Amino acid sequence: MNRCFEDFPVGMRLRSARYQVTPRAIEEFAREYDPQPFHLDQAAAEKTLFGGLAASGWHTAAISMRLFIETMQVPGGIIGLAVDELRWPTAVRPGDDLHVDTEILAARLSGSRPGQGILRIQNVTRNQRDQIVQSFTATAMLPTRG
Is this model's pTM higher than 0.70 or not? Predict the structure, then answer.
């Protein structure tokens, strides 16, 4: 399915596929982007505030972005313009099965870029226990049908 701005009316809700987080993925992401003990090694992580291996919030954000993009199915791409109220209320752990719920909050045509629309969205990422592991509101630009 190929979608564009007009396919996302205000109030629309979408749910992504699921993504299982592995210990190896947590550690590899951390080695590259967030090398802190609670992301890098189970034994070291047990001695931290988390009491065990936990994914970086930025890893959670990257997973959420992938799930969001795959769900939206906009071949022309989606350009992020702003992210507000980014929260990580619950740590992501090895074995967590994540999905993203998206709601379209507002939609308008771009005044400065013909052929583009602007969406205001709320994304909430949850684990298999329905706990919120990440939430944010965002503004994004995507192609219109015309």
Answer: yes
